[in-house]
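User: Teach me something about this protein's shape.
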Amino acid sequence: MGHYHFTVDSSGKIEVLGGTALANDDAAIAFGKRVIQDFKRHSERYPGWAMLITEGDRTVGCIPFEP
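Assistant: First, the predicted structure itself:
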C-alpha cells in the first residue's frame, strides 16, 4: 500500500488536494478520475486543467480534465 498525493494544475495555478493511502497505482488513478468527475459536476469546462498523481518522488500519472 502506497501513500499517493493529488495535485491539480489549473492552467498554471497549482492546488494541492492532499494525499491518501491506496492499494496501488491503478487504485490511485481510479480515485483521481472520481475526484475529477466531482469537479466536473459544477462545470463541464476546465480548459488546460490536469491532475498530477505522485507517490513520493515518482509520478504515477497525469489525467487531463477534458478528453
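Now, about its shape. The chain has one domain: 2-64. The CA atoms of residues 7 and 17 lie 5 Å apart. If you'd like, I can walk through any region in more detail.
User: That's plenty for now, thanks!
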